[in-house]
Amino acid sequence: MVFSNEDEILIKNLRESKGYSARKFIKEFPDKNWNRKGLDYLLKKLRETGTVERKVGSGKRRSARTTQNTNDVEDLIISQEDKPRTYQSTRQVAQETGVSQSSVRIVNKDLSLKCFKRRRAQELTESNRLARLVRPRQLLKRYQEHDVAFVWYTDEKIFTVAAPSNSQNYRVYNNNNNNNCCP
User: Fold this and answer.
1) 37 lies in which domain range?
2) Are 71 and 103 part of one and the same domain?
3) pLDDT at 183 over 50
4) Confidence of residue 81 (pLDDT cuts 50, 70, 90)
5) Predicted structure pTM score
6) Within a domain: 136
7) What pLDDT is attached to residue 37?
8) 9 and 82 within one domain
9) Residues 171 and 81 in one domain
């Protein structure tokens, strides 16, 4: 049972001054809903250590989320600005840093990064736009006027230069508060 700081101080003072037992505490303070097992544990701790405070270093150790590990994970999980596509997956980061894969949650907790699925989109530069305007005009000059009615243009083709990849595995990490998901 978890006792508040005020309850622990009250229990300690009454135990030392009046020698209250666990039964006496339950009888005197029925509205607190203390159970006997929790009081026995607290009184035992008071007898052995002389205090109701936690022992120094008694909590769970933070072995994975150290500043060194946080810096290592940050370097590996995010693409470097001068070297695009140098990021690694959480599994690769875990292998390289020696931190367990479940502890690579440093990405979310400490670095405040969110995983996004990269999506393919076509970006037209000014030179692409100019070429799309000039080339059809050049093509129209090659045909006679009565053949032009049979020529049909569409702008819906996406030309890929990169090799195909599984888009499910193609992830990018970015800040949670940034709406632009793809750098």
Assistant:
1) 5-49
2) yes
3) no
4) low
5) 0.41
6) no
7) 93
8) no
9) yes
